[in-house]
Write the structure tokens for this entry.
Amino acid sequence: ELIATLSAHTIKKRNGSCEHYASLLSVMYNRMGFEAVVVKGEVKTGSKWSEHAWVVAKVGGKYRSFDILYGTYFTASHNAFTFYKKTDAYIESTHKWEREKYPVCAD
């Protein structure tokens, strides 16, 4: 499976793209018993949109977005937790995705 291959690459090489890191996080969450999927979409980087991947996981009975790379590299604070455990409403100004393909992250 692609997700397993990408996550193994990330561990072995200690680097990768956003899809590699999202795949690794998804595998880790799933192995811990949380339902998690990799979301493929786009993020706003300055004035343009770029391909990106992040994770949606069910935690505490609610789906939430986890995007550790966007907060680290594309926010002024460079804080990995800026986009950690967030709702769709929180991330929609900086992230675009085909919403019907993924669980809804709402309050």
Observations:
- The longest helix spans residues 18-31.
- DSSP finds four helices and five strands in the chain.
- Helices lie at 2-13, 18-31, 68-74, 88-91.
